[in-house]
Design a protein that fits this description.
Shape of chain A: globular
Structural class of chain B: alpha/beta
Strand order of the largest sheet of chain B: 6-1-2-5-4-3-7
Largest sheet of chain B: 7 strands, antiparallel
Bound molecules: flavin-adenine dinucleotide, FE2/S2 (inorganic) cluster
Largest sheet of chain A: 5 strands, parallel
Radius of gyration of chain B: 18 Å
Strand content of chain B: 25-35%
Oligomer: heterodimer
Distance between the termini of chain B: 28 Å
Distance between the termini of chain A: 27 Å
Number of domains of chain B: 2
CATH architecture of the largest domain in chain B: 3-Layer(aba) Sandwich
CATH architecture of the largest domain in chain A: 3-Layer(bba) Sandwich
CATH topology of the largest domain in chain A: FAD/NAD(P)-binding domain
Chain lengths: 485, 273
């Protein structure tokens, strides 16, 4: 059924007719219930957003006008059938809503929590044109996915009979997980190789528990295991085994989803002082190694005056983690203005509520330390927004001679990541851009080496969970077709 | 999960393990290391692969008890498992026939030096190993080193074995005696710093294998970063071996001290329990 046919179904017609559009659009957008800001800035592992109640969800679903031309779907990188799932919520068929989500998304409970909806689906909502707040699509997505999980009625997808063809996946982040799920459904024997001791990629080692509980990711992983997907941790493809080894072992296709795990630094004076680290190091210590737990052997600094450099989700996650570990002064240092911040709107809002200071239009130029080599101060260059560049974005320029010295005892550098070079370095013939990303055919995700397909951050550089997941699904479809030929 | 096949004490604080790891045994070369983790709450720590047995599918690790995590590894018995082990990591040592090579090692650096001495010897080099320790009881692997070295010079602080003096004294004697084409040094950062200083004076090319703090060991975090020739490098992927004369050892020493206080607290907790 196409979108129009779906929309023409009797139940949808009836539901649309049950309430006037005007009435629908006069309903106020729901507020996500959340933990109290003072309380939550001192607890490490409790999720901030508590989720909508069924009543709230149904009420919010009523706001959706079930447009004939649902522009929201254009805003979704994987084209989720948004009106269909929302209308299922409205009529109380929550499980049906979850099933609708899964037609296109492999990880709705995750995406409902971490997608930048205000820049995707919700930015295209008809309500915005009428000067109203958009439908809370992300909150509803999360509601439906959580409802299914908590109901215990998660459906393990029916898999086609085994075809005996072995497929390898490198990396267990969203791209790898989505790919593995689709290939298992098609009957392939899927083995996922993961370098770390935990499965989940950034979802586990990066995004903190207060934003995305591990439990949510684990449910997805268990589901894949129930479908017969095999996971091998502590195995680095390109080091422990080579792609050639995999081929010799009978693997007929390899999906590289190794992510963009390499932290960038700014190469400024004093950056190697003690107490200065990448957000990857900081978050890995806290999330993967549970370093803030007194029982854990892994140490982590618990700075009192912490600065995080950057304005993305990773930066917000780092500074909010620092706050939870006891930072009295917690600062975001970002060289552009708040408007240009790449972080999700909600993260910025939550950060502010938790008492995070925002030093926008500031850029570190040097760090100073004491005799033990521990960082004590950062020198910030004050910036202003210059003329718009070719892309229309106003880039920051230095205000000559205007600097500020700020006391810090811990600095987390979160200025972006580069693709993991392990695979590109270890495979001959793989085409790689000057940024280190793997070149693939955009339609099929196939690389210059035919048996290798790739997707997610290794192809895009640091991008998003939904794009990574979408790549995984696209690659699965294309690899299946390629193997059949 | 990697099973421990054998365990042998070199001294009260130095343990040699053979561990099941067929894939790593097959892929590893001299200079490579692994990251291991013991227990659910364990830390990820780097350990050099001292040797491998392809037939048995095992690798050899030599571990010196230092802090919490190395003690936990050393406490494991035959038949027990290392919770997680990943590798081989790092760049393999570049081995060729250089001519005459001094291998200067001490303390924790002795075990990782073993495979390098072997490989250098097999490549036809004249290998002179300078093995240093505080006293006689702390000298390990002397036998094994002798098997693969043309000469072994033992240096102890108190003269209880070999010659009295520091590793640098041994190295200098050799350099003054004959033409040396390369020096490789592994040991505590402070030791490598002084070996490097010495060989720089004599313009002997020198490689140091750095043992920085690590987390993932795959280039993902930057905990292991050092300055080499003024540029930041990640020891786990760009190293562990670097041109010693370019390494900023003072910065490295400072960074190594970063978690000392916390480590001490942890140790105290364990001792008091
Ligand atoms: C802190 C943080 C917060 C973020 N917040 C958001 C957000 O709110 N919303 C959003 O949409 N996106 C967010 N992102 C970005 C998003 O997480 C990534 O775009 C996404 O995870 C990429 O997925 P991936 O599958 O390509 O790679 P990853 O999730 O990076 O997974 C790659 C996996 O491959 C493994 N690997 C690498 N090399 C090898 C090898 N050679 N052999 C075996 N395994 C290997 C790695 O260990 C890793 O587990 C965030 C990122 C971070 C770091
Ligand atoms: S140990 Fe993390 S980058 Fe080297």
């Amino acid at each position: 059924m196409n979108i129009a046919e779906e929309r023409a179904q009797a139940w949808r017609e009836e539901l649309r007719g049950s309430m006037k559009a005007k009435e629908r659009s006069s309903i106020e957008r729901v507020h996500m219930p959340e933990l109290d800001a003072t309380y939550r800035s001192h607890v490490r592992n409790e999720e901030v957003n508590l989720g909508l109640t069924p009543e709230q969800a149904v009420q919010e679903a009523k706001r959706c006008l079930d447009c004939a031309n649902p522009t929201c779907m254009e805003g979704c990188p994987v084209g989720i059938y948004i009106p269909k799932f929302i209308k299922n919520i409205e009529r109380g068929e929550f499980l049906q809503a979850a099933i609708t989500l899964k037609e296109t998304s492999a990880l709705p409970a995750v995406c409902g929590r971490v997608c930048p909806q205000e820049r995707q689906c919700e930015s295209k909502c008809i309500h915005l044109k009428m000067n109203k707040e958009s439908v809370a699509i992300g909150h509803l997505e999360r509601f439906a996915a959580d409802y299914e999980r908590i109901s215990g009625k998660i459906s393990v997808p029916v898999c086609a009979p085994h075809n005996g063809i072995k497929i390898a996946v490198v990396g267990s982040g969203p791209a790898g997980l989505a790919f593995a799920g689709d290939m298992a459904k098609l009957g392939y024997e899927v083995v996922v190789f993961e370098a770390l001791h935990e499965i989940g990629g950034v979802l586990k080692y990066g995004i903190p528990e207060f934003r995305l509980p591990n439990e949510i990711v684990d449910v997805e992983i268990h589901n894949l295991q129930a479908m017969g997907v095999h996971f091998i941790t502590n195995c680095i493809v390109g080091k422990t085994i080579s792609i050639q080894d995999l081929e010799d072992d009978g693997f007929k296709g390899v999906f590289v989803a190794s992510g963009a795990g390499l932290p960038r630094f700014m190469d400024i004076k004093g950056e190697n002082l003690v107490g200065i680290m990448s957000s990857n190091e900081y978050l890995t210590r806290v999330n993967l190694m549970d370093a803030a737990n007194p029982d854990s052997d892994t140490p982590v600094y618990k700075g009192k005056k912490v600065a995080v450099i950057g304005g993305g989700n990773t930066a917000m996650d780092s500074i909010r983690t620092a706050r939870r570990l006891g930072a009295e002064k917690a600062m975001i240092v970002y060289r552009r203005s708040e408007q240009e911040m790449p972080a999700r709107l909600e993260e910025v809002k939550h950060a502010k509520e938790e008492g995070i200071e925002f030093l926008t239009l500031h850029n570190p130029i040097e760090y100073l330390g004491n005799e033990q080599g521990r960082v004590t101060h950062m020198m910030l260059q004050v910036m202003e927004l210059g003329e718009p560049d070719a892309s229309g974005r106003r880039s920051p320029v230095e205000l000559p001679g205007v600097t500020k010295l700020v006391e810090v005892d811990e600095v987390v550098v979160s200025v972006g990541v580069s693709p993991n070079p392990l695979i590109p370095q270890s495979v001959k013939g793989l085409e790689v851009t000057k940024w280190g990303t793997v070149v693939v055919n955009q339609e099929t995700m196939q690389s210059a080496v035919p048996i290798i397909f790739a997707g997610g951050d290794i192809v895009r550089g640091g991008a998003t969970v939904i794009l990574a997941m979408g790549d995984g699904r696209k690659a699965a479809k294309a690899m299946d077709e390629w193997i059949r030929k | 999960m990697n099973k421990i096949i054998s365990k042998e004490y070199f001294s009260a604080n130095v343990v040699k393990f053979e561990v099941e790891a067929p894939l790593i045994a097959k892929a590893r070369k001299a200079g490579h290391f692994v990251i291991v983790r013991v227990g659910d709450k364990g830390e990820r720590i780097p350990l050099t692969i001292a040797d491998a047995d392809l037939q048995k599918g095992t690798i050899t690790l030599v571990i010196q008890k230092m802090g919490v995590s190395s003690s936990k590894v050393c406490a494991l018995e035959v038949g027990e498992y290392i919770t997680d082990m990943v590798g081989p990591l790092g760049k393999a040592t570049h081995i060729e026939n250089f001519g005459t090579v001094i291998c200067a090692c001490g303390g924790v650096g002795t075990a990782p030096m073993m495979p390098i001495v072997q490989a250098l010897k097999n490549a036809g080099n004249k290998v002179i190993t300078v093995l240093a320790a505080r006293n006689k009881d702390l000298i390990i692997l002397e036998e094994q080193m002798r098997n693969y070295s043309d000469e072994v010079i033992i240096m102890t602080d108190d003269g209880s074995s070999g010659n009295k003096g520091l590793v640098t004294t041994g190295v200098e004697t050799v350099i003054q005696r004959e033409k040396v084409d390369l020096c490789v040094t592994i040991g505590p950062a402070i030791m490598m710093k002084f070996v490097s200083k010495l060989t720089k004076q004599y313009e002997v090319p020198t490689l140091a294998s750095l043992n920085t703090i690590m987390v993932d060991g795959t280039g993902m975090c930057g905990a292991c970063r050092v300055s080499v020739g003024g540029k930041t490098k990640f020891v786990c992927v760009d190293g562990p071996e670097f041109d010693a004369h370019q390494v900023d050892f003072d910065e490295m020493l400072m960074r190594l001290g970063g978690y000392k206080e916390m480590e001490q607290e942890e140790m105290n907790k364990i001792i008091n329990n």
